[in-house]
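Let's practice the habit of predicting before peeking. Look at the sequence and jot down your guess about where helices and strands might fall. Then scroll down.
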Amino acid sequence: MLAKVRVPREAAMRQLPFDIDADSVIEVGRYLDDHAKTTAVSMSEALRVIRRRVNSARVGDSRLEELILESAATRKLALLLDNHN
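Done guessing? Here is the structure:
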């Protein structure tokens, strides 16, 4: 028997800011999904790797940091805020 599942409003997808493209969102998701759950995600390392994978200068570092932070929080991953730029 199938049960109806209600998706909380917070879990629904939201509109992306105009300067964030779908490729960046996908790469952040891939990076975080491949990351070990027992160690903190290094913000500087994540930025470096994702920048290398997505050759889009359209996304600013602050927006990319915000996306990494939000995505890591959704996955309940610890973050190491070691980006000093």
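How did you do? The longest helix spans residues 61-74.
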